[in-house]
Automatic annotation (TrEMBL), chain A:
Alphabetical GO biological process terms: protein retention in ER lumen; protein transport; vesicle-mediated transport
Protein name: ER lumen protein-retaining receptor
Record flagged with keyword Transmembrane helix: yes
The entry's keywords: Endoplasmic reticulum, ER-Golgi transport, Membrane, Protein transport, Receptor, Transmembrane, Transmembrane helix, Transport
Principal location class: endoplasmic reticulum
Entry similarity comment: Belongs to the ERD2 family.
An example Gene Ontology molecular-function term: ER retention sequence binding
Cellular compartments annotated: Endoplasmic reticulum membrane
InterPro entries: ER_ret_rcpt
Length: 215, 10
């Protein structure tokens, strides 16, 4: 494992910690898209089905369990916590699941490497992860007064994707048989989706102003 | 083969 991959994973973990701290600390999930969180949970479930059959390292197994656990907790809090659920912007979070899930499923069926249930679901998770942030970005555009934690959450998540690309470039040059067009294409698409957000994030940081995305 | 390699990432 190289330093980019490790840093990427840590950013991913940190983004989840920031989100959980926000939700449980201030008992509010304002500005957070439940749809994005549920899609991430679906991504983790479909990708990590091999958790007990394909052992890579203790690190991988622990991280998989952490991601499954924390994303379940986030969805649980937003849907069922007596206080937290009241702060969810349900009317604003209108992105249609089907718009993201259906194309991912079709592409997975069309391009899967091998046609086994696990492999098709794994491919599905790669496509779905690339677009799962979209409901969150749409919700951010509609949210006035985005709080710092929400902005930082999306920033950390975007950093994780950027670092994974550096990891792939590194592996491309250091490992002989490292050619993964599907994963790379989806990863690059996913990172491009964040570009607009990054632009405004840095702008607000530079000018010391509150983050606001133009509608 | 290529998809196997990605399985060591998260």
């Amino acid at each position: 494992m190289n330093v980019f991959r490790l840093a990427g994973d840590m950013m991913h973990l940190l983004s989840i910690v920031v989100l959980l701290l926000k939700i449980t600390g201030i008992k509010s999930c304002r500005g957070i898209s439940l749809k994005t969180q549920e899609l991430y949970l679906l991504v983790f479930i479909t990708r990590y089905l091999d958790i007990f059959t394909n052992f890579v390292s203790l690190y991988n197994t622990v991280m998989k369990l952490v991601f499954l656990g924390t994303s379940s907790a986030i969805v649980y809090y937003m849907r069922y916590d007596r206080i937290i659920k009241l702060t969810y912007d349900k009317e604003q979070d209108t992105f249609k699941y089907l718009l993201l899930v259906a194309p991912s499923a079709v592409l997975a069926l069309a391009t899967s490497h091998v046609y086994t249930v696990l492999e098709v679901l794994w491919t599905f998770s790669i496509y779905l992860e690339a677009v799962a942030i979209m409901p969150q970005l749409v919700l951010l555009q509609r949210t006035q007064n985005i709080d710092n934690l929400t902005g930082n959450y999306v920033f950390l998540l975007g950093s994780y994707r950027g670092l994974y690309i550096l990891n792939w470039i590194y592996r491309f040059f250091t490992e002989k048989h490292y050619r993964q067009w599907l994963v790379w294409t989806c990863g690059v698409v996913q990172t491009i989706i964040y570009c607009d957000f990054f632009y405004y994030y840095f702008l607000s940081w530079q000018n010391n102003e509150k983050l606001a995305l133009p509608a | 083969k290529d998809s196997k390699a990605a399985k060591d990432e998260l």
